[in-house]
Amino acid sequence: MGTGHHAAVTARVAPGKTVAVIGDGAVGLCGVLAARRLGAERLILLGHHPDRLDLGRAFGATDVVTERGEAAVERVRELTRGLGTHSVLECVGTQEAVEMAVEMVRPGGAIGRVGVPHHAGIPATPTFFKNAVVAGGPAPTRAYMPELVTDVLEGRIQPGHVFDLTLPLDQVAEGYRAMDERRAIKVLLEP
After folding, report:
1. What is the overall mean pLDDT for the chain?
2. What number is the average pLDDT over the span 136-144?
3. Most CB atoms closer than 10 Å: which of 33, 36, 146, 176?
4. What is the Cα–Cα distance from 53 to 162, expressed in whole angstroms?
5. DSSP of 48-97
6. Are 47 and 23 in contact (CB under 8 A)?
7. In terms of pTM, does the model score above 0.90?
8. pLDDT in tens, 10-68
């Protein structure tokens, strides 16, 4: 939850804004929760797994885009009447995801990148001419804990729904396999 929240904070999500979240994994889904918590009016979740997209809708996504690459960018442009989004939460870390974020953010918008980078880099020219903010990195989750734990304990957000498989601790390898093969969003290990 802290990492999804960091993506939303660094992407400058605020009340009334339109937000795109790239990635339907645990971080992207928690990014949806965080963006809704920060007052986003419209939340566009980009992903490919029906069960995760359903959870994203339950978390507050108003729109879902299942296309990839340029087709996904075009779909977001359609949904925003050609304007793009105020904020993009990049929760994947691939070159394609970063390029999509740069393409779909509107001029003057912001990209919060928390997907661990395994790509060549962020396209400098389009971000420069869009005057787009690009921020993010490892989440300072301890700094966010007081506000997030309060919201969890008071029932305002329920990020625990990303744990969709519970295994005993001695099956940790199977837990990683399940997440790698997309059979689980996040595994909860019990002693």
Report:
1. 96
2. 96
3. 33
4. 12
5. S-HHHHHHHHHHT-SEEE---HHHHHHHHHHHTTTS-EEEEEE-S-SHHH
6. yes
7. yes
8. 999 999 999 999 999 999 999 999 999 999 999 999 999 999 999 999 999 999 999 99
* Separation CA 103–CA 82 (nearest Å): 11
> What is the structure's pLDDT at 49?
95
**Above 90 in pLDDT, residue 123?**
no
| H and E: helices and strands count for the chain | 8, 8
Place 71 in a pLDDT band, splitting at 50, 70 and 90. very high
The alpha carbon of residue 22 and the mean position of all alpha carbons in its chain are separated, in whole angstroms, by 5
Neighbours of 153 (CB within 10 A): 9
Amino acid, res. 84: G
Q: Where are the domains of the chain?
A: 2-141, 158-191
3-state secondary structure of 129: helix
Residue type, 53: L
Task: Quickly tell me which residue has 């305002």 as its tokens.
Answer: 156
- From start to end of the chain, where are the E strands? 18-22, 42-46, 63-65, 85-90, 105-113, 133-136, 163-168, 186-190
The correct CATH number of 2-141 out of 3.40.50.2300, 3.30.2000.30, 3.40.718.10, 3.40.50.720 is: 3.40.50.720
Q: What is the mean pLDDT of residues 168-188?
A: 96
